[in-house]
Amino acid sequence: xxxxxxxxxxxxxxxxxxxxxxxxxxxxxxxxxxxxxxxxxxxxxxxxxxxxxxxxxxxxxxxxxxxxxxxxxxxxxxxxxxxxxxxxxxxxxxxxxxxxxxxxxxxxxxxxxxxxxxxxxxxxxxxxxxxxxxxxxxxxxxxxxxxxxxxxxxxxxxxxxxxxxxxxxxxxxxxxxxxxxxxxxxxxxxxxxxxxxxxxxxxxxxxxxxxxxxxxxxxxxxxxxxxxxxxxxxxxxxxxxxxxxxxxxxxxxxxxxxxxxxxxxxxxxxxxxxxxxxxxxxxxxxxxxxxxxxxxxxxxxxxxxxxxxxxxxxxxxxxxxxxxxxxxxxxxxxx
Length: 335
Description:
- The chain is an alpha/beta fold and 335 residues long.
- Helix content is 34%, strand content 20%.
- Strand 1 (14-19), helix 1 (26-36) and strand 2 (39-44) form a beta-alpha-beta unit.
- Helix 5 (159-169) crosses helix 11, helix 6 packs across helix 11 and helix 7 crosses helix 8.
């Protein structure tokens, strides 16, 4: 399929891309360069903090387009570091799955009627279980607290996500915004979860090693299908389940900076990465889901709960550190 660019996009231009490893592989970038005559300079980042520093450091003047999750996106919009996207310049939006075509239905993408981001890839935080120890797929996140799995649950070491998980297990309608009265209950819930834990991980590869070596029964998969793919490749007999409450999920989107030199060229980049070849590369190479084809490990009825900004990331981090240290609730909640 030919890539149609606006008149302003001519050969010899440079497109400056800031993104995550696996999102802009050299062979895919080369195709875009051949089609447009533009040169693409890709810079990779490895954390949300680094992404913020690179974009905010020079008021978004150093890059044209970057990838960011919907929760993080909000501070870029608030600080006028990104600009609305002309969706007419991204015709492949029409090829996305219904849940991604409905941009108004995804928190944080549309503001004041303007579209600030185009969904690209996502990972849901499902439950991975050892088929030899758990015969039936767990249907609820309550399984993480099941006393039958005491000392057999492998958890993600992430303050924000774990407080959201606890609030979700308590049926909080908005687990991203804890009210003052809800903190004690959430803390007690996480202390209960800590007692079920066999250990905590930060990176996908680390979780595979711990799962195999310590013979975990259940894993809260912060990296979702990516971890499932790694565990299966390691020869572990595992299953995967999306909890009935809905799986927490991060959604990475392409956005255009305020400092973009050629916004039409940036839009063309976004449109290209919604084509089948780049989209399928996410699945085959990274174990991630794309937005144009159904994820292989999800059923139509499975629900996702997109991450949103939380009420206080610093407070969640402080209390989580105390919970990990083994403190009682009264000490965890102390000023």
